[in-house]
Amino acid sequence: MRPQRYHIRFPADNLTRASQAEAYFTIMEDGKERRIAFHDYADIYNRPGLYEQLFYQRLKCTSPAKLTELLRDAATKAGDDPTQMRVLDVGAGNGMVGELLVQHGAARVVGIDNIQEAERAADRDRPGAYDAYYVTDLTRLSPEVLAELKGWSFDAMTTVAALGFGDIPVAAFAAAYNLVRDDGWVAFNIKETFLDTADTSGFSRLVKHMVHDDYLKLHRLERYRHRLSIEGNMLYYYAVVGRKRRDIDDACLAGIQHETH
Length: 261
Prior knowledge:
The protein is α/β, with parallel strands linked by helices. Helices cover about 35% and strands about 25% of the residues.
């Protein structure tokens, strides 16, 4: 069955004043115009094909393919076998990254997201992409779910296009990172401004700490075109791929919180 096509429109008043985090679009639905924010993922996932049409066809997002390829290539170059990887895909959404990880031969892929609509969309659009899918808050894991996640013995983690807009808080990223074994692989992307010295946001501080204080051994840092903005301008991100050296501890998180206040 071909996915439904939507009439997507970017309002003219949004083009000049909205930040990336505030951007929205409209679709025609039952003869009425419906406004949806870019980060209203529940609304987007509930409409089959809308996420792909908006971000990948209209705005030319390249990040899932970019990050999964860089992870595979970095691991191979380091002498690891990507087909042996047990990957935790954080902010898994409707399964685009999970599907690519499977195509690259990952042994196990487990998704995690904080909204039920994401799991339903992944089951609907990409059945079989994940060996398991958890809908939970990483900062409030029950002992049972934590034990299950640890039982997967993750040696890799991905999180794509989900950092820095409140979708995944710093503490949630740290909790997921700490589920990966030491010397395991971590791949994520961040806005290019996060590496500017003027950026004092939590994620900017965290990434700098991770690299400078030997939490993460960097293997690849590559600036690339993430997608187009609604104005048609290029949005550049950094792809980060490295090996985990040690857990992100409470002292690190406390230091980041202190620096951002």
